[in-house]
């Protein structure tokens, strides 16, 4: 029993990161129908920037803030400089642009930062907490709590504010939104900025546990994307559920089946979801069958 | 069909063949033959991918998976089963085609970017299996590949591979150019313009897309086998995500749907790192930048854009 | 040129003459290197490149080798074996090198070996796996300790502490896999029983499931972690998180200060085999390696501002062995140099004392490794190892 609990803790910790990345995907997809493969790089940039600022002598809270702001600006730049000029292009073209952006950011990061791996001091230090024979790090609880907080804040924002309603309108029908006066360009700007901020925060929170380096982005993006697909791309609660589920599946696979095929879990899930439930667990069946 | 249309259709292949035959005059050493052979082998895979991307309008973000299957077939076949290399090459091609069929059939029914995502997952799964099944594949360090033996004579020199790869490429190009003008090719053109209209005309959209997907997988598999036999060594990297993106970039650079562009794209991405060795630090960033810039501004790629300029100038 | 323009002809001829003699006087010894400076193995290639460049400069500044200057050509394979192969061909065909010190990873080395064997040019590899020199190939040598040696050293220590039933948790990257295979092969003859095994991906962020399984396995007395990069640091942290008190052994692949930094207090008590380079200042004063390692450490740290790395040390050894072989052969002819490399005896390097022979193209024995334990956030030498 204790070992199952340990696997669950492990799965939830990792799953919370996937959930935050998936949330970033979902946000941009909702507002613009774009799948942003550079999402993982936002996580990397948040973590790495914070690390290098603290190495340079800046206090952790300030470094974290600057890192989030810097990444947000990069997210905006991605939209304005790379996506906007190509507006009207096919989804496939847009995916390739974001893949190009992800490669570019990763390539630049290894030059500006370095190629080693780094850590950050945890927000909540201290000994692991023992529950029922299993141990969970306090920082893991911080990550889980943050995921919950961010999702809640996002939900309140979407549901209760005017800007949030504008996002929903844009997602539902872009043309109609513009007709009623919504500046859809700003909305997409905003979604990119928010995604970047969420990604960067996730990066800073997870670095004390999982470490960071210039190339953590790729695998995270792929797994976060699998999570978003599992939950139903376009659904925020789906993204969180998908992330946690993938984390759990991975941990259970590693514990009970074969640890070397752990990474394969996420990709098998992508294929399985596409073949059997393309709309995901919570998504609407928007897929056209030809 | 008169002689003139025949000429026009195969003109790109004839031009490429001419270049292919005369280039060796300028090669001072075996190193250049090696580069040439590598370009041709990559170009073969790119031609296949181009059929999928340019004609059928689909993207495969895991095409290196098929490269990897082809590459490892010519390693595993001789080493573990004692099969001759050329037979293993065929085996690999059939395996790739079959897997493409099995993966493609359920996915190609969906519209839009779902094949991209499915192939992404597929490519990475292949890389993971190749890395983990060390007893068969030699694990992350890979395994060595016995040299190709043709009519009891070992093929090892770069010069020989240059000729083999070039000939196969030209053959592949001729096949692709013929496909373009065939009923399947015309059906694909219709699908590209409007899937719904095409299906109203009675075209089995899924079946046509599937045919192209399987064909492109076979092209990639043969290319992968050649590369493995040439290099004498395979690693799971040959099936990796970065390699898949490189292939896509080659298509994009050269021009989606342009057969000649496939060669141009492959040539650029193989030759440039050799020329710009000092800039190796920036290679990844550069790859990303090229992909972005071309997809934003030069979506048609180099060859169609150049061709269009000529046409414009003539007018 | 028409003969009726004697001045023109004379000018051209004298210019050509200038070029001719100029070329002869500056004939340099061309040595090549293909390293993984960027990419997943940059941890290896970057310090190797810096070391080679640093010391070639120094050697040239003090007169070169046999009166000639060395010319070093470095190519970056980005961790890709196919690229390495292409660059190797380029070095042989285009750059016409006479010797090569390089090959950061086993994969790239194995891909390049046929090129150098065919061209009959000596190749000193900087990679770890034992397949590079076993079976012995006449033109291929290597400087780093093999992973087999690391296993043997660890097992000897385990045996001396009576910890003969162990668990392995290894990374699925090339280094981890190769060392794991060697450990499994060597265990029976070392009197060690591997009760259970787990593995993790090099990019994984949490190994608690695997460690939980190990903890639950009865009879395990110690755990060995063949791995590289960030994995071992996370394994070590997870180890303490789960409260496992069994002795933990790491591989020589994590022998760097950064591992201690990242593993934090969890690293306390961890043991690993390492070359003398890592504990340069703690070596007893009469240790024959001390002057060499202290000197290299200081020079590297001064010139690059980064802590010394064992991988850079391997490059240093490779270069020095090559240069000394050239000096003994009094020529840069590949065949003569190869023979002299094979005759290297008593070379004191950063990795150990090298004694090569026709059947041993690495030349290190178990005394080249010391057993270290992490105490108080720093390395301590376990006496007698």
Structural notes for this entry:
- The complex is a heterotrimer of chains A (290), B (315) and C (385).
- Chain A contains eleven helices and two strands; from the N terminus they run H-H-H-H-E-E-H-H-H-H-H-H-H.
- Chain A is mostly helical and 290 residues long.
- Chain A has one domain (2-276): ABC transporter involved in vitamin B12 uptake, BtuC (Orthogonal Bundle), CATH 1.10.3470.
- Chain A has a two-stranded antiparallel sheet.
- With 315 residues, chain B is mainly alpha-helical.
- Chain B has one domain.
- Chain B is built from 14 helices and four strands.
- Chain B has helices at 3-22, 30-55, 64-81, 85-107, 114-132, 134-137, 158-181, 183-193, 195-200, 205-231, 241-254, 259-275, 283-296, 302-314; strands at 143-144, 148-150, 153-155, 233-234.
- In chain B, helix 3 (64-81) packs across helix 10 (205-231).
- Chain B is globular and about 50 Å long.
- The relative contact order of chain B is 0.18.
- Chain C has two domains: 29-145 and 290-364, Rossmann fold, CATH 3.40.50; 148-274, Response regulator (Rossmann fold, 3-Layer(aba) Sandwich), CATH 3.40.50.2300.
- Chain C has helices at 6-25, 42-61, 81-93, 106-119, 147-160, 174-190, 208-216, 230-241, 257-263, 290-304, 310-329, 334-342; strands at residues 29-35, 70-76, 99-102, 123-125, 140-142, 165-171, 193-200, 222-225, 248-250, 271-274, 347-348, 353-354, 370-375, 378-381.
- In chain C, helix 3 (81-93) packs parallel to helix 4 (106-119) and helix 5 crosses helix 6 (174-190).
- The radius of gyration of chain C is 24 Å and the shape is globular.
Largest sheet of chain B: 2 strands, antiparallel
Structural class of chain B: mainly alpha
Specify the CATH architecture of the largest domain in chain C.
3-Layer(aba) Sandwich
* Structural domain count of chain C: 2
Salient structural properties:
heterotrimer, A: 290 residues, mainly alpha, ABC transporter involved in vitamin B12 uptake, BtuC, 73% helix, globular, B: 315 residues, two-stranded antiparallel ribbon, 75% helix
Write a brief caption for the model:
The complex is a heterotrimer of chains A (290), B (315) and C (385). By secondary structure, chain B is mainly alpha-helical.
């Amino acid at each position: 029993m204790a070992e199952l609990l340990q696997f669950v803790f492990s799965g939830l910790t990792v799953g919370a990161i996937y959930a935050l990345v998936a949330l970033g995907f979902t946000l941009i997809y909702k507002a613009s129908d774009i799948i942003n493969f550079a999402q993982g790089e936002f996580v990397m940039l948040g973590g790495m920037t914070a690390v290098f600022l603290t190495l340079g002598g800046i206090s952790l809270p300030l470094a974290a803030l600057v890192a989030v702001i810097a990444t947000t600006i990069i997210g905006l730049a991605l939209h304005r400089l790379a996506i906007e000029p190509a507006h009207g292009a096919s989804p496939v073209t847009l995916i390739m642009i974001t893949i190009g952006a992800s490669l570019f950011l990763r390539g630049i990061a290894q030059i500006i930062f370095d190629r080693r791996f780094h850590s950050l001091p945890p927000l909540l230090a201290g000994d692991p907490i023992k529950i029922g024979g299993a141990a969970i790090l306090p920082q893991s609880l911080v990550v889980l709590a943050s995921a919950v907080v961010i999702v809640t804040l996002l939900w309140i924002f979407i549901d209760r504010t005017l800007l949030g309603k504008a996002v929903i309108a844009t997602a539902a029908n872009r043309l109609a939104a513009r007709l009623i006066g919504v500046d859809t360009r700003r909305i997409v700007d905003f979604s990119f900025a928010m995604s970047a901020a969420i990604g960067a925060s996730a990066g800073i929170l997870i670095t004390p546990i999982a470490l960071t380096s210039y190339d953590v982005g790729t695998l995270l993006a792929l797994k976060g994307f699998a999570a978003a697909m599992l939950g139903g791309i376009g659904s925020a609660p789906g993204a969180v559920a998908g992330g946690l589920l993938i984390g759990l599946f991975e941990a259970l696979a590693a514990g009970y089946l074969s640890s070397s095929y752990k990474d394969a879990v996420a990709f098998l899930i992508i294929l399985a979801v596409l073949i059997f439930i393309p709309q995901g667990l919570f998504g609407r069946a928007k897929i056209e069958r030809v | 069909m008169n002689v003139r249309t025949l000429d026009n259709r195969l003109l790109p292949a004839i031009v490429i063949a001419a270049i292919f035959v005369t280039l060796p005059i300028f090669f001072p050493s075996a190193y250049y033959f090696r580069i040439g052979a590598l370009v041709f082998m990559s170009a073969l895979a790119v031609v296949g991918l181009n059929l999928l991307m340019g004609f059928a309008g689909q993207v495969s973000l895991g095409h290196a998976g098929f490269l990897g299957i082809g590459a490892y077939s010519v390693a595993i076949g001789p080493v573990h089963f004692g099969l001759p290399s050329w037979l293993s090459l065929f085996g690999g091609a059939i395996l790739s085609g079959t897997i493409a069929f099995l993966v493609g059939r359920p996915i190609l029914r969906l519209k839009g970017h779902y094949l991209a995502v499915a192939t992404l997952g597929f490519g990475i799964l292949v890389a993971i299996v190749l890395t983990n099944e060390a007893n068969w594949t030699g694990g992350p360090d890979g395994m060595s590949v016995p040299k190709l033996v043709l009519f009891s004579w070992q093929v090892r020199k770069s010069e020989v591979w240059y000729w083999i790869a070039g000939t196969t490429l030209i053959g592949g190009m001729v096949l692709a150019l013929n496909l373009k003008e065939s009923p399947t090719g015309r059906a694909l053109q219709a699908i590209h313009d409007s899937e719904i209209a095409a299906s109203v005309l009675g075209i089995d959209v899924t079946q046509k897309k599937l045919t192209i997907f399987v064909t492109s997988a076979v092209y990639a598999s043969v290319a992968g086998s050649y590369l493995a036999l040439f290099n004498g060594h395979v690693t799971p990297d040959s099936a990796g995500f970065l390699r898949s993106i490189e292939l896509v970039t080659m298509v994009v650079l050269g021009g989606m749907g342009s057969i000649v562009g496939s060669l141009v794209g492959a040539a650029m991405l193989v030759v440039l790192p050799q020329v710009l060795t000092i800039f190796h630090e920036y290679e990844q960033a550069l790859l990303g930048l090229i992909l972005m810039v071309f997809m934003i501004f030069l979506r048609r790629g180099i060859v169609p854009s150049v061709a269009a300029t000529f046409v414009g100038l003539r007018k | 040129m028409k003969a009726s323009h004697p001045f023109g002809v004379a000018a051209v001829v004298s210019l050509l003459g200038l070029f001719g003699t100029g070329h002869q006087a500056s004939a340099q010894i061309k040595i090549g290197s293909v390293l993984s400076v960027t990419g997943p193995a940059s941890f290896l290639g970057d310090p190797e490149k810096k070391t080679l460049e640093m010391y070639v400069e120094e050697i040239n500044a003090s007169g070169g080798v046999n009166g000639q200057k060395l010319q070093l050509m470095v190519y970056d394979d980005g961790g890709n074996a196919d690229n390495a192969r292409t660059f190797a061909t380029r070095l042989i065909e285009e750059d016409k090198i006479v010797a090569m010190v390089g090959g950061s990873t086993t994969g790239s080395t194995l891909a390049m070996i046929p090129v150098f064997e065919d061209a009959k040019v000596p190749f000193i590899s900087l990679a770890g796996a034992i397949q590079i020199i076993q079976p012995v190939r006449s033109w291929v040598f290597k400087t780093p300790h093999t992973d087999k040696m690391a296993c043997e050293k660890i097992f000897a220590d385990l045996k001396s502490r009576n910890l003969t039933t162990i668990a392995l948790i290894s990374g699925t990257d090339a280094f981890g896999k190769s060392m794991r295979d060697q450990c499994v092969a060597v265990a029976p003859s070392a009197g060690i029983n591997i009760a259970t095994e787990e593995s993790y991906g090099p990019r994984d962020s949490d190994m608690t499931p695997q460690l939980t399984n190990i903890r639950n396995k009865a009879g395990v007395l110690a755990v060995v972690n063949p791995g590289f990069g960030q994995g071992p640091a996370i394994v070590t942290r997870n180890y303490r998180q789960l409260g496992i008190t069994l002795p933990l052994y790491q591989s020589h692949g994590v022998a760097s200060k950064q591992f201690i930094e990242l593993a934090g207090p969890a690293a306390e008590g961890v043991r690993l085999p390492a070359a003398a380079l890592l504990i340069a200042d703690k070596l007893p004063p009469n240790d024959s390696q001390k002057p060499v390692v202290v000197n290299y450490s200081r020079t590297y740290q001064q010139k690059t501002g980064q802590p010394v790395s064992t991988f850079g040390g391997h490059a240093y050894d490779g270069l020095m062995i090559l240069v000394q072989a050239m000096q003994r052969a009094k020529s840069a002819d590949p065949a003569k140099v190869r023979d002299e490399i094979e005759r290297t005896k008593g070379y004191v390097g950063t990795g150990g004392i090298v004694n090569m022979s026709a059947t041993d193209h690495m030349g290190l024995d178990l005394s080249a490794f010391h057993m270290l334990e992490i105490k108080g956030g720093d390395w301590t030498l376990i006496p007698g190892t």
